[in-house]
Amino acid sequence: MLGVVTAAVAGLLLLLLLLRDRLFPFLWEDLGAFLALGGAAARCRRRLSRRPVVTLLEVFQEHARRQPHRPLLLFQDEVFTYRDVEQRSSRAARAFSQRLGLQPGQTVAVFLPNEPTYVWTWLALAKLGCPMACLNSNVRGQALLHALAAAQATFVLASTELRDALEEVLPDLQRDGIKVFYLSSKSPTPGVEALLPAIEAASDEPLPGHYRAGITANSKAIYIYTSGTTGLPKAAVITELKLMMVASLGRICGIRGTDHVYTTLPLYHSAGLLIGVGGCLEIGATCVLRSKFSASQFWDDCRRYNVTVIQYVGELMRYLCNTPKRDNDHKHGVRLAVGNGLRAEVWKEFLQRFGPISIWEFYGATEGNAGFINYTGKIGAVGRANPFLKSFAPFELIKYNVEQDEPVRDERGLCIRVRPGETGLLVIKITKNTPFHGYAGDSKKTEKKILRDVLAKGDAFFNSGDLLMMDHEKFVYFQDRVGDTFRWKGENVATTEVEATLAMVNFIQEVNVYGVSVPGCEGKCGMAAIRLKPGMSFEGENFYAFTKETLPSYAAPRFVRIQEAMEITGTFKQCKGNLVREGFDPTIIKDPLFFRDEKKKSYVPMNTDIHAAIREAKINL
Ligand SMILES: *[C@@H]1O[C@H](CO)[C@@H](O)[C@H](O)[C@H]1NC(C)=O
Ligand SMILES: CC(=O)N[C@H]1CO[C@H](CO)[C@@H](O)[C@@H]1O
């Protein structure tokens, strides 16, 4: 009997090996990634099912016991070791408990720039069993009040650097019974207490366990606000399990305890806080923190702090490639880059310019229930449809109607899968393994992100809002955000694709592509806002020739607007809203404006005559 089984297994293995190249050309990579990701997920679940529970906080504390003298944070000239942060967070927890009268489970909002305070405050709140709401430090007025209400935060811990923003809403906060404190030594605002003296006077003894007695895998640990380019911030719920899973991403990418991870991304977003700092806490590594990204200081910092791992978003890599070349571009110890949004062209240029750095590109949304990582070295791809992982995190790319802004449905009312090579909306099935926790205090927005009746009546998927494409080898590529893609002449124009192409033009420093309405025309007409390289000017004829050569005619921008500076979000995402609203009217726009003139084969300065002719449909776009 045993012999038969062995023979059958051997036969099957042989068959698998023979068929491998045809059916599973990436068998080992897929299997490896499956084991790494599956292993990480199992490890997180195991830790969180222990009693007493082991969350990211306990993992950090274990590192603090084992390697008290290893630096956890390097910031400007300061060094904070694991022991420093463990002690300081205990002090802060005691002071918070006394001065705020905090109860476990009460949400506390932090309104802080990137600085070490962020990290020990986070751990202090975790020690008290309190979720932390990470306010975007750029948010003001009504949006700030809305953000606090969404997470039901009744306390705000702030930096005096953000004093103006805080004082602006202070009467509203007091009216709503929200208590505000500064984490500094002195308070510049009457009626707001500064907590640092109390923190420094408190004992650094570990806190009694009862504060965290109620914590489980599903407890809310953090609220991260997803900025979006429109509307009020939404508070995405990060549970203890999700926190640990996201913090494990670094380990999966090969970050080790001896690494120095350079984080210039804002800590109020998941990339900086959960993947960067969280990743260091998980693995016991050192985080080199910077208050703000600086392209000119980037590599000097990497040398000064012995950085081995950098975190990026695509635009950041582009800024680095745009800096003037230096002799020491290759002189650094960076071996790994972890991030997202890197376009293939920039990816190649970056590697050429700064040497062989292993790039781990991933795709995922803060509130999303699954994601991808590039584990095979395919430039430009965000990852693969891994046949092993797909059964755990089933995703689909479905047909999307850009104009109606909704998925295409068949006669049964179900969604339709796209074919390889076609762009579709990414949706990820909501299951026990891939839960969607939604947005705090906003069931309507949560429901809006859930797509029902996708492949069968009654099923539910997370709507990523992103358009992706899968090729014949099952590599997955990011195309565009749903709201950014527009339709022109019956074709979909993916703005990120056009931007990536236009960015190759020698006089362009930065480019933002969007669609504007033209009276009497279907769809949206392409327009590009451009920032020129220093000392360069816009060359209409060259630009025309370039777009003619590289872009399909429907995708070539009809209008060009030259800007001195571009509006971007805290994570370097370009804002399109105002640009779209201002359109191409030369009486509204003071920036130099150009129009694509097919007859002259050039981009010519826009004037009120051309504008009128377009409005009266005398010029055919
Ligand atoms: C960087 O490495 C050098 C040489 O090993 C060492 O002397 C220096 O202290 C390190 N600096 C930091 C910030 O780790
Ligand atoms: C993890 C991994 O294989 N990442 C790769 C992604 O693609 C780039 C470009 O080929 C490689 O350098 C990375 O090593």
Automatic annotation (TrEMBL):
Q: Write down any Gene Ontology CC term.
A: endoplasmic reticulum membrane
Which Gene Ontology BP annotations are present? bile acid metabolic process; long-chain fatty acid import into cell
One Pfam family named in its UniProt record: AMP-binding
Q: Where is the AMP-dependent synthetase/ligase domain?
A: 60-386
Using the record's annotation, list all stretches that form the AMP-binding enzyme C-terminal domain.
Answer: 497-573
Q: Does the keyword Cytoplasm apply?
A: no
Q: Which reaction does it catalyse?
A: tetracosanoate + ATP + CoA = tetracosanoyl-CoA + AMP + diphosphate; a very long-chain fatty acid + ATP + CoA = a very long-chain fatty acyl-CoA + AMP + diphosphate; a long-chain fatty acid + ATP + CoA = a long-chain fatty acyl-CoA + AMP + diphosphate
| Gene3D superfamilies the record matches | 3.30.300.30, N-terminal domain of ligase-like
One GO molecular-function entry: long-chain fatty acid-CoA ligase activity
Enzyme class (EC, first level)? ligase
Family assignment? Belongs to the ATP-dependent AMP-binding enzyme family.
Instruction: Tell me the protein's name.
Output: long-chain-fatty-acid--CoA ligase
